[in-house]
Amino acid sequence: MNGTARIRVAHLGLGPIGRELVKALLDADHLELVGAADINPQMAGKSLRELVDHPKAGGVRVCSSAEELLEDAAPALVTQTTGSRLDQIYASLAGVVDAGVSLVSTAEELLYPWLRHAQLAEQLHQRAVQRGSRVLGTGINPGFVMDLLPLVLCQPCLDVRRVRAVRVVDVSTRRGQLQVKVGAGLSADEFRARVSAGRLGHVGLLESAALLAHKLGWTLESLEETIEPVLADRPMKTEHVAVTPGLVAGVHQVARGRTDDGRELLLDLTMTLGAADPHDGVQIDGRPPVEVRVPGGYAGDAATVATVVNAIPRLPRMPAGLWTVADLPVSTVPNLWGR
């Protein structure tokens, strides 16, 4: 550690990604995991070692609430992997911030909360400023592939007319929760009904577009999103779902933004069972043009965990308040790479 004090971190939410994040926090030499919590009564009171297979997890007891976690663990920062919608988790976030504790969350709408929840975002920012806390929403998507990465790739361009980001994910290789989230196994009518009810689809695509536009200095005249089913053309089966031809295998989701002078954002996301040619890609129509392709794409769960862990030591460099991934310093922690 070269004499650098370890950052006291507590974690909120012990679902699949939360448990993987806990392992990474325990592995990080510059961090000290001092607590964990989940509202599931079957987890509360247990040793973290009973839920997470890691040799360093034995000394942590699982709390039943954020309030109990803050009181018992006295962390400097909380990581949070519960919920996607800001209005549904705002009270929990505000409780952390009001305690003078900083927060890194994977809540998708927190990537750019000013889009849908401008008032809540301003309230959270003011609370953080008053209490000396720092708040950040991050992840791999949203948080990197379709927003931060394109922004970085625009840096060597004198002018940008169009940004296109593409992500194709074979969800048969991912956790069962995501396979259900994209509608695998539903009929097309069931899929559309769930989309209409806000119960299906990727959260955060519009936030990625809004963040991109804001940091590019573009004022969007229009911003729209389409969500359509991808229908299976052959039988497919995983440990979690079985799909016959004609049923939904996944989702194709597109966000489009345009300015009044013809500049355009296009974010194209496909998440489906058996997707051909999984990859991430960015194409920039600029001066000069830029094109980058990542064969196979960034591994969603592992990469999300990494974005959280790598954000933690950068966040204290920011003034108190609510920030985006595009505001943070780009560098990561040197000792993460030199072990």
What distinguishing features does this structure have?
single chain, 339 residues, alpha/beta, Dihydrodipicolinate Reductase, domain 2, 6-stranded mixed sheet, 10 helices, globular
Helix content: 25-40%
| Cα Rg | 20 Å
Largest sheet: 7 strands, parallel
CATH architecture classification of the largest domain: 3-Layer(aba) Sandwich
Order of helices and strands: EHEEHEHEHEHEHHHEEEEEEEHEH
The level-1 CATH class of the largest domain: Alpha Beta
- Globally, the shape reads globular
Mean pLDDT: 94
Structural class: alpha/beta
Count of individual helical segments? 10
Question: How many strand units?
Answer: 15
CATH homologous superfamily label of the largest domain: NAD(P)-binding Rossmann-like Domain
CATH T-level fold name of the largest domain: Rossmann fold
Beta-strand level of the residues, as a percent range?
A: 25-35%
Within the largest sheet, what's the order of strands? Answer: 3-2-1-4-5-6-15
Estimate nothing, just give the exact number of structural domains.
2
- First-last Cα distance: 10 Å
What are the low-pLDDT stretches, counting only 5+ consecutive residues below 50?
334-339
Please describe what this structure looks like.
The chain has 339 residues and is α/β, with parallel strands linked by helices. It has two domains: 7-139 and 302-337, NAD(P)-binding Rossmann-like Domain (Rossmann fold), CATH 3.40.50.720; 148-297, Dihydrodipicolinate Reductase, domain 2. The chain has ten helices and 15 strands. The strands form three sheets. It has a seven-stranded parallel beta sheet, with helices on both faces. Strands 8-11-12-7-13-14 form a six-stranded mixed beta sheet. Strand 1 (7-12), helix 1 and strand 2 (31-37) form a beta-alpha-beta unit. The radius of gyration is 20 Å and the shape is globular.
